[in-house]
């Protein structure tokens, strides 16, 4: 295997060098830079080149053939440096839905649209101290890749145009709408012979009426688990060894082997499962549009996503058990967390043309339900009467949005749009089986109790106006938005974006805007109890029960915390664009984002009042901090003829830094400030995501062959294990993707390749951060899967 990896790497490097050694033929070619984009403004003539704000267009049709990645999250993670998504491990629901970030902001500060319509978020709250801690994001991977034509990423604040959540930017997913069919089959696995993936995706489109179309799309995938824990056999007597960190690893391992053999057991009885969760997906989408009359069009799109996840919690050693529980599991156990995530969406509307006006009336419904089951576990307080499998409850989020939009190009220089929006949201938590929450609750994942159950809702009204002016080489975009929330009051936001082309092909652009993000219903109403580490009275790190307590609770007021309010932001950007030829395009954009009253989870709070909740420590949502984010995006794209083939070379990078500039310690706060917002939470905001990320991608097509080589640099991150570990810097890493594809016929392509070809991992964790060596690697930067190889057959019909 090592030899094969070396040969593949050598081929990739040699092939790349050979391509550059050939004579470059200058030839004018059209690129997707002139393709019309839907976001950034409501002028239908907007493109990447003439946009006043930075917009990326990702051609999914090309990428899904050559790329090792086959989900929206993973694809964007490797093609847009300011976008980040990392798989998490042993993190409850977060390992089943990957959180995503843009420009170093939170997952809930990125707005997602589908065909220009607001997409609902998930019902999941990320609270396991991973990236995006305390946030609620949108599950991009619930949208089948086979349904997507292209993805537009607006890297600029857009709350004045699209409303709440658009502080960092907007991702707009444009669905396929043309007749035709395609399908692909993919098989892959890691270099450690786990993580097998089977993926089928396909779509079929046909005409609907004289001018319309309907496209059906589906994805069925199965990703097996990976395991990256050390097979070091933890001593069942409690003397835990991480052999890589022991003074004499061989002697330590031999001593444990002797103890295990004396009990008639094997090392597998104590093996941990730490890695990517097993995930199965079944996804179905439809996108339809047809003309009812010469001036009236009907459209409807959406679908369902059904996901079944299988992850693992911390292993319980026999020394962690007592009494009857030890008799049920004499060798200890590692519980399995099984999830069922069901997602439904539909947008239906009418578009009417009248006297130059385009009128669009639509209704968009989204529903996300997340159900939990715990297997191979126990409720120790119930002893022999405890089941070993539990239904642990569920949470659900519903969003329904009604839009009425008017737009018109008044003349060659003036465009105008305005409209209104009504949005209804509902959030529910349902209790699990009584055995899952009573007493000590089900181990590893405690079920939702009746005290956690909630049925909360709200509505909001919004009105906006959006205009564009052009005067020669100068253009200006102006937008304003008023929004009223039934539970948080009013907000008014505005945006001004300017662009000036001082020489043909060269321009300067900039924008300034205000924004907001209302606290999500999940942040307002979520509560539960969960298992995590805490320090006992002797300073020892032990497992115990903690809880998320609602901000509106009596406990929150007793501790002196303020009620939740909306985040407010200021977003400014300044950039240069260069297009000396139709084949070369360069953009450089600097940005500044200030967020006041940012909503976060507190650090662990210890207080005598927690006894009534039967928990050791509590965390509460609060507007604790103000942050400032400064960054720079660079994108270079070049298309040319190279020999008898076509070469596309792209280099893009992001520099980004977020700092906490102020803390909002309530005047009546009764707890220590470090418990309100300590180093562990500061680390997540400021240094747990790469501050530098860059991608160099080369695609070369010739005589039916396509060669792709892509190197992605993930900058260093810092992980603070406080208060249970230490501060550790994880150095930057380069991940190499490569693939070779061949068109066997005009409609049949076969591709082989690899993600992380050179089997790169984050730095190994120091002993005190690794939970006795069980977590040799933290899932930071590129995750901890290692090399992954795939083969794919693609068809068109």
From TrEMBL:
<dbReference type="InterPro" id="IPR012910">
    <property type="entry name" value="Plug_dom"/>
</dbReference>
<comment type="similarity">
    <text>Belongs to the TonB-dependent receptor family.</text>
</comment>
<keyword id="KW-0732">Signal</keyword>
<dbReference type="InterPro" id="IPR036942">
    <property type="entry name" value="Beta-barrel_TonB_sf"/>
</dbReference>
<feature type="signal peptide">
    <location>
        <begin position="1"/>
        <end position="21"/>
    </location>
</feature>
<keyword id="KW-0798">TonB box</keyword>
<feature type="domain" description="TonB-dependent receptor-like beta-barrel">
    <location>
        <begin position="298"/>
        <end position="757"/>
    </location>
</feature>
<keyword id="KW-0812">Transmembrane</keyword>
<keyword id="KW-0472">Membrane</keyword>
<keyword id="KW-1134">Transmembrane beta strand</keyword>
<dbReference type="InterPro" id="IPR039426">
    <property type="entry name" value="TonB-dep_rcpt-like"/>
</dbReference>
<protein>
    <submittedName>
        <fullName>Iron complex outermembrane recepter protein</fullName>
    </submittedName>
</protein>
<dbReference type="Pfam" id="PF07715">
    <property type="entry name" value="Plug"/>
</dbReference>
<dbReference type="GO" id="GO:0009279">
    <property type="term" value="C:cell outer membrane"/>
</dbReference>
<keyword id="KW-0813">Transport</keyword>
<dbReference type="InterPro" id="IPR000531">
    <property type="entry name" value="Beta-barrel_TonB"/>
</dbReference>
<dbReference type="InterPro" id="IPR037066">
    <property type="entry name" value="Plug_dom_sf"/>
</dbReference>
<feature type="domain" description="TonB-dependent receptor plug">
    <location>
        <begin position="50"/>
        <end position="170"/>
    </location>
</feature>
<dbReference type="Pfam" id="PF00593">
    <property type="entry name" value="TonB_dep_Rec_b-barrel"/>
</dbReference>
<keyword id="KW-0998">Cell outer membrane</keyword>
């Amino acid at each position: 295997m090592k030899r094969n990896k070396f040969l593949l790497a050598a081929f990739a490097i040699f092939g790349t060098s050979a391509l550059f050694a050939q004579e470059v033929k200058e030839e004018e070619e059209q690129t997707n830079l002139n393709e019309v984009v839907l976001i950034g403004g409501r002028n239908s003539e907007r493109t990447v080149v003439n946009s006043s704000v930075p917009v990326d267009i990702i051609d999914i049709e090309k990428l899904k053939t050559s790329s090792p990645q086959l989900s929206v999250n993973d694809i964007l993670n490797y093609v847009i440096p300011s976008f980040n998504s990392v798989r998490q491990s042993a993190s409850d629901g977060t390992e089943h839905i990957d959180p995503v970030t843009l420009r170093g902001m939170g997952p809930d500060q990125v707005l997602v649209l589908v065909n220009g319509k607001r997409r609902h978020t998930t019902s999941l709250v990320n609270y396991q101290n991973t990236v995006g801690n305390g946030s609620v994001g949108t599950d991009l991977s619930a949208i089948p890749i086979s349904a997507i034509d292209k993805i537009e990423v607006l890297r600029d604040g857009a709350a004045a145009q699209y409303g709440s959540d658009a502080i960092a930017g907007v991702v707009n997913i444009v669905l396929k709408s043309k007749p035709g069919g395609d399908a692909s089959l993919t098989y892959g696995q890691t270099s450690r012979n786990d993580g097998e993936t089977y993926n089928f995706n396909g779509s079929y489109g046909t005409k609907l009426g004289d001018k319309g179309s309907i496209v059906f799309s589906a994805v069925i995938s199965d990703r097996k688990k990976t395991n990256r824990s050390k097979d070091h056999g933890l001593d069942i007597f409690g003397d835990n060894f991480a052999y890589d960190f022991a003074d004499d690893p061989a002697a330590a391992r031999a001593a444990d082997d002797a103890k295990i053999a004396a009990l008639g057991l094997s090392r597998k009885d104590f093996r941990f499962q730490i890695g990517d969760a097993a995930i199965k997906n079944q996804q179905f989408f439809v996108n339809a549009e047809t003309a009812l009359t010469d001036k009236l069009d009907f459209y409807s799109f959406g679908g369902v996503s059904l996901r079944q996840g299988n992850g693992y919690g911390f292993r319980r050693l026999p020394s962690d058990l007592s009494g009857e529980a030890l008799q049920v599991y004499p060798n200890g156990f590692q519980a399995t967390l099984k999830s069922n995530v069901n997602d439904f969406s539909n947008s239906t509307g009418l578009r009417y043309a009248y006297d130059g006006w385009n009128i669009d009336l639509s209704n968009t419904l989204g529903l996300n339900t997340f159900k939990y089951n715990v297997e191979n576990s126990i409720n120790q307080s119930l002893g022999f009467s405890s089941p070993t499998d539990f239904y642990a409850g569920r949470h659900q989020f519903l969003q329904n949005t009604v839009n009425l939009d008017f737009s018109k190009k008044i003349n060659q220089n003036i465009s105008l749009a305005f409209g209104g929006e009504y949005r209804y949201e509902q959030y529910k938590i349902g209790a699990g089986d009584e055995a899952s929450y009573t007493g000590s609750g089900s181990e590893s994942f405690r079920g939702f109790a009746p005290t956690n159950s909630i049925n909360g809702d709200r509505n909001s009204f919004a009105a906006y106006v959006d205009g564009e002016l052009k005067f020669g080489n100068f253009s200006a975009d102006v937008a304003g938005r008023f929004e009223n929330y039934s539970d948080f009051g009013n907000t008014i936001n505005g945006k001004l974006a300017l662009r000036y082309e001082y020489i043909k092909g060269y321009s300067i652009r900039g924008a300034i805007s205000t924004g907001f993000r209302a606290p999500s219903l999940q942040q307002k109403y979520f509560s539960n109890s969960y298992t995590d580490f805490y320090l006992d009275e002797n300073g020892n790190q032990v497992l115990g029960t903690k809880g998320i307590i609602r901000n509106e609770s009596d406990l929150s007021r007793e501790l002196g915390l303020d009620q939740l309010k909306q985040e407010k932001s200021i977003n400014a950007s300044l950039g240069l664009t260069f297009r000396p030829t139709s084949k070369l395009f360069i953009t450089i954009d600097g940005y500044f984002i200030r967020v006041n009253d940012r909503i976060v989870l507190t650090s662990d709070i210890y207080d005598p009042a927690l006894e009534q909740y039967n928990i050791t420590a509590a965390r509460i949502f609060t507007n604790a901090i103000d942050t400032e984010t400064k960054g720079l995006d660079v994108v270079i794209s070049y298309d040319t003829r190279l020999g008898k083939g076509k070469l596309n070379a792209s280099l893009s990078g992001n520099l980004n830094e977020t700092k906490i500039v102020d803390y909002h310690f309530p005047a009546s706060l009764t707890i220590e400030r470090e418990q309100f917002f300590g180093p562990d939470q500061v680390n997540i905001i400021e240094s747990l995501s790469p501050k530098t990320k860059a991608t160099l991608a080369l695609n070369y097509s010739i005589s039916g062959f396509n060669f792709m080589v892509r190197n992605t640099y993930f900058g260093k991150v810092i992980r603070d294990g406080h208060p249970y570990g230490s501060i550790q810097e994880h150095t930057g890493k380069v991940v190499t993707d490569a693939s070779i594809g061949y068109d066997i016929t005009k409609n049949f392509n076969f591709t082989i390749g690899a993600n992380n070809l050179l089997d790169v991992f984050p730095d190994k964790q120091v002993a005190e951060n690794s939970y006795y060596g069980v977590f040799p690697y933290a899932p930071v930067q590129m995750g901890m899967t290692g090399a992954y190889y795939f083969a794919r057959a693609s068809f068109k019909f």
